[in-house]
Amino acid sequence: MDESKRNFIKGGLASLFVASTSANAFSLKNPGRDKKDSRYIGDKTKHYAMVIDLRQCIGCQSCTSACMVENNVPQNQNRTSVTEMELGEFPDVRKAFLPQLCNHCDDPACVPVCPTGATFKREDGIVVVDSEICWGCGYCANACPYDKRFMNKETKVMDKCTFCAHRVDEGLLPACVETCVGGARIFGDLNDKTSEVSKLLSNYPTTVLKSEQGTKPQVFYIGLDGRMEEVLNATANLDDIMRKEIGIKEHEWATMKGEE
Amino acid sequence: MDTLITTLSAITPDRIWGIDIPNYFWFTGSSAAAFIISSFAHVFGMEKYKPIAGFSLLMALVLLIAAPLNLIDDLSQPGRLANFFLYGWENFPTSPMKWGVLLLMAYPILIFFEALVLYRPYFVKKMNFNKGIKRKIYSLLSLGRTQLNSEETAKDHRYGFILGSIGIPLALCVHGYTGYILGAVHGNYLWSTPLMPILFLASAMVSGTGLLIILIPIFQKFFTTQRRVDKSIIAELAKLLAWFIVIDLTIRALWLSFAIPFGNEPKNYLLEFFTMHFNITVYIEYILCLIIPMIIGFSKLRHNLPLVFITGIVVAMGVWLFRWSTVIGGQTIPRSMPGFLEYSPHMIGQGSITAIIANWLFFIALVCLVTSLFPWDEEMEEHYNEKGLNHE
């Protein structure tokens, strides 16, 4: 073999080596996690959770708006929202609010089914979606028992609440928590026994949504009226009835109720 | 619960899977069934299925090439197809969708090679008949084994048997995994049952047999030299179909009886769901598309070719409807808010009715291509001559 051929082969092998070590191509996880990017790993020492004190919620939707602004969520899509209900029959009626967001489950249903590894749980318990990797198959959205995932109509990938991980990493509170008028949303580290969330959890009876699903949600409610989960016996969402009434059909999926 | 709960405002949840997905399930299922019917002859040596074994195998191949295109169309980022192969292997044990990659790649390759082995004598004959490039192509298709002596033919049988034997579990997996995809979703009350893979397989056998009952008479009538339909094989398929329907009905009965009368809280949702869809489910899906075809298959009516042909169409459509009512229906059930959702596919673009029609046209084009490349008709003829039957 002459020198030039030998050099060519050597060069080829060297560049192959460089390429294979620098490329993320055959990662079993995803590039961000392999690179130990702190945005993908989070703070290992912490375990974040949220407590929602329903006694304090006044249904002002400022959390909903703050989230939309902070996270640049497209119009008519929501990472968090507050469901508004009336419980009881006249004259014994009361208003009830149920703020809902991704539960950042300890045993999430969405993570293990993801075929590209785009959705995963950070070491601090926050469940995130890598928008560079997600290919939009929607399996996670179908797996989520809480319906808290949606296809972002602008990015065309899965989107959901991240507990404002970008703010939390900077030592700030999630936007919804910071803006909450009644102080109904409390966010913090469960590993820290002196944190407000830890104290609330040890001092008050709390409930999670759909505990029977076994996903171990990390969003805890104080004062959750069990009736609010009895959605089947409830009437259809008035917003949807209205939308139907005026003939708005945003996309192929729309709501209805059999008894309408 | 007497208390009235009125929802004043809530967010309509996002639902993801549209018309592509039931169509995909129909295609993979029918492919698995066609493969298994071809294996009756190739693996289990059942003589009566020999004439249609090759044709069924080709249909299995074509159906499975067309099927995954539905999945790609349903993605909101189809350009990121490669991500599926590059990332997320840590989820392999828990993501049935991940298993699908390997199955969707391995299975058509296996069918292709089985078809090559099966049709080797024809390719060798063609090779000896032609010169130049054509000769090379046929030599390639015969995989370099150009002898036609009894030793080589025995080898063909052995290879065919081995590939067919591997293919049976593979075919079951390729459709069974799709049932897993749904069954694993515990948040969805309609889907969440371990019966889902076997339920999907049972209905797949129904649609696959139905499809063969539609295609075989058409191909025998118009694309063979004898131009005659083998009524006996069609009657045989109709009887087979009836047995598959028995299995399908049994599993469906188990599924619904466990889910509704003995179910936990979700039974209320399912009861409401089936009440809303009572007419379509009972009269169309069950009576028209399963029970009547079953009666036809088990009675002397199975010798009535036009009737059986229509039965084939009906069952194939019925299984499509079942796929639809399971995939789409399951997603209409509410999880975080009151009220069932409603889905109406749009006309053009991704995940639309046009996309589905395009997929079917692609399937038909592939059928034409594959049936013109492979000498299934010669094979069919040969089997009929061997049997000494001048079939009608």
Describe what you observe in this structure.
The complex is a heterodimer of chains A (260) and B (392). Chain A has 260 residues and is α+β, with helices and mostly antiparallel strands. Chain A has one domain (31-244): Alpha-Beta Plaits (2-Layer Sandwich), CATH 3.30.70.20. Helices cover 28% and strands 17% of the residues of chain A. In chain A, the strands form four sheets. Chain A has a four-stranded mixed sheet with strand order 8-1-10-9. In chain A, strands 2-3 form a two-stranded antiparallel ribbon. In chain A, a hairpin with a 5-residue loop joins strand 4 (119-121) and strand 5 (127-129). The longest helix of chain A is centred in the N-terminal third of the chain and has 20 residues, at 3-22. Chain A starts with a helix and ends with a strand. Chain B is mainly alpha-helical. Chain B has a single domain (15-387), classed as Formate dehydrogenase/DMSO reductase domain (Formate dehydrogenase/DMSO reductase fold). Chain B contains 14 helices and two strands; from the N terminus they run E-H-H-H-H-H-H-H-H-H-H-H-H-E-H-H. In chain B, helix 4 (96-118) packs antiparallel against helix 7 (150-183). Classes of the chains: A alpha+beta (260), B mainly alpha (392). The interface between A and B is large, with 73 and 68 residues. Chain A: GO terms for molecular function: 4 iron, 4 sulfur cluster binding; metal ion binding. Chain A: It comes from Halarcobacter anaerophilus. Chain A: Keywords: 4Fe-4S, Iron, Iron-sulfur, Metal-binding. Chain A: Residues 48-78, 93-124, 125-154 form the 4Fe-4S ferredoxin-type domain. Chain A: This is 4Fe-4S ferredoxin.
